[in-house]
Design a protein that fits this description.
The chain has one helix and three strands. By secondary structure, it is of the alpha+beta class. The protein is elongated.
Length: about 90
């Protein structure tokens, strides 16, 4: 979390905005105090980092994410190439 707390638990649900629900949670406060919580809803904008097990690396759900990432990178590259072309044309005129 951005405030320095750590939440470790079972991921029940996640949204596009990175809002997520965890169950059987161990919360470690900034001062090191550990507390056990039955469930927690975390706001995505407060999350700094998510660590997932390596086992999930090849999970079908992440294949979709990988495909989406490649598509977005390709579109960004095409936009950037388009911007360079426009700049070149303007420089010629």
């Amino acid at each position: 979390m951005k405030n320095g707390e750590i939440y470790r638990g079972l991921l029940l649900s996640a949204e596009d905005t990175m809002n997520m629900t965890l169950s059987d949670v161990l919360r470690t406060a900034r001062n090191g105090q550990i507390s056990k919580l039955p469930s927690v809803y975390l706001r995505g904008s407060s999350i700094r980092f998510i660590a997932l097990p390596d086992l999930l690396k090849n999970a079908p759900v992440f294949q979709k994410v990988t495909t989406m990432k490649r598509k977005m990178e390709k579109e960004l590259q095409q936009r950037q190439e388009g911007e360079h072309t426009i700049v070149s044309v303007i420089a010629v005129i």
